[in-house]
User: Fold this.
Amino acid sequence: MFNTDTITRFSQSETPFYYYDLNVLRQTLSACREASSKYGFHVHYAMKANFNPRVLDTIQSFGFGADCVSGNEVKAAIEHGFDNNKVVFAGVGKSDKEINAALDADIFCFNVESVQELEVIDDLAAAKGKVANVAIRINPNVDAHTHHYITTGLDENKFGINTWQLNDVATALRTLKNIQFVGIHFHVGSQITDLEVYKSLCLRINEMQDWFEEHGFKVKVLNTGGGLGVDYYNPDTNTIGDFESYFKVFKDFLNVKPGQEVHFELGRVLVAQSAALISSVLYVKNGQKKNFLVLDAGMTELMRPMLYQAYHAIENLSRRDNAQAPGTKYDVVGPICESTDCFRKDVELPVSQRGDLIAIRTAGAYGEVMASGYNLRDRILSVYSEH
Ligand SMILES: *Cc1c(COP(=O)(O)O)cnc(C)c1O
Assistant:
């Protein structure tokens, strides 16, 4: 489905670049919208996964909301036409400047992570004569069974309010006049492929909404967060996420009351398969123990392998015709002056040469957005499947 043929059109272009297949993106968004709307669920796109302008415009055109984690993301969401009533602002460390900007933009809601933050938002809203909607991010202590660097919902993580602090939250919500409680928010982690995790989350959300209702608060919004994973091993055969099964878990296990809205904040699963990082082989180093392919892309263009030990499928686009011929194993590395600058070790590939075009697949999420200027590298380019 991901159209690698079109990439070769760009083989004369300067590498490295991110190649976006907008058709894959649209098909993914369409599948998500169909599966969620069946149950009346609302999806906010977690913009931190990819804020490339073309990607944002495409996602906005499908009617999704935006889940932002910085003041600049809130600003970008509004600029790209996301409805301010569908913009939420999450994050454990919102600065006063960011909160003020979000208040000025009249966003739907702040997902709040501490009692102190409630007090600050209340103060800043009061100064503007406004009342800010808030949802309380609760740490559900549910294990996401994912890489520990991307687990967020355990008591030991920095995120959210732990259940033993809820009485203080309730007191703050009752006394502070410039905030309005609208609901509860959760996010247990990323790249979650075991749907049982979401079942546990649902049961926890049910308990938590009962707690709030028993304490006299009307819970209008249940925000379940994001985290649905993608198949990094089989990008061609498993391109579109299994949205049907995902939303069905919530339909089956979440206790949704009349008038309540259920919100989701999906990032990775909406964008990951729609892009590849395209790079050229600069040098082939044949050693005694190891062979290296030295690419012109490195951790400055795609950091996930180095940051999370993440797996990405790697293909030699220039040798696809003899992909079945006996190949060899390479450590595929970047040019950056760090030993950790390695995409993967012992990658089975056709015998490769200087100038070959290499695709690192499933790079649409947490790829381009994490690019850095380390080593004073050029800014990463983006190329699209269509104009
Ligand atoms: C990162 C994040 C998401 C999206 O996570 P994905 O794994 O990309 O779906 C959703 N909600 C919050 C609060 C986040 O921080």
